[in-house]
Amino acid sequence: MLQDTYIKFLKYLHFPLPYIAFIVSAIFGIILLLNGIVLLQVRTTYILYLHDYYHITSKLLSYILATNCVMLVLFEVPFLQIVKKYAAIGPFLLCLGMALLAFRNISSIPFISCVILTIDEILLFPTIVAILFNRSKERKRATSLGFYQSIFSAATMLAPLAGGYIYLKNPHLLWYCCGGVGLGSLLLFYLVPERKP
Length: 197
What we know:
Elements: H1 2-12, H2 17-39, H3 45-53, H4 58-83, H5 90-99, H6 109-123, H7 125-134, H8 141-169, H9 171-191
């Protein structure tokens, strides 16, 4: 419905089909890039923030990160089978898990954030390749996978730069930005149409 309206709008503006495909690819690329940058904050600013503002010790941090591993091992396959059609909420959950860190007056937030990030990891990343395959033509599937890898590589490079820059300016602002990326991604995800068989 929203996707069809969006495509009709682009056609109304007299965008030729190749341009529509480019716009759709650009939207999907933006979603992947921004969410890759948010995800990779776990490797950099996430740990710093937990140490600086929650005063979490290394031992407690290891328990938080172990929660992620245990949940993945126990719940990934059953959970994925139940919710795989709702993969679009994955980017939103990712960013919600990060945005919760801004509420530092609640001591259980790091554990809640870790659980939400793990649910996202279970929900989004195993299904992203399937989404790319379903939304691309059969002859372009390898190109789509290469596109995904390229975007994620760019996010790997940009995440420490963007996250570190924002963290140095205002550490709390970083998590609000992550929440904004999640809301934007949720909307943009629905603008990327599925390929008609």
